[in-house]
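for the writeup, i need someone to sanity check this before i put it in the appendix. the sequnce is what the collaborator sent (i think, or maybe the updated version? ugh). structure was predicted straight from it, no edits. if anything looks off just tell me and ill rerun, i have time this weekend
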Amino acid sequence: LVTPKVMSLEESLEFIDTDELLEVTPENLRIRKKILDPTLRKRSMIKSKQ
């Protein structure tokens, strides 16, 4: 496993892609995909390319 990178809020905002969200809690910053289901994510990417 790859160790997680420790980033500030600004660094996290610069790092995320258009298909990701930044979850902000008092203790953590989490980067995650907007669409969590891999199958739906692939369908969405195909639709957006057309």
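The radius of gyration is 13 Å. Residues 9-49 form one domain.
thx in advance!!
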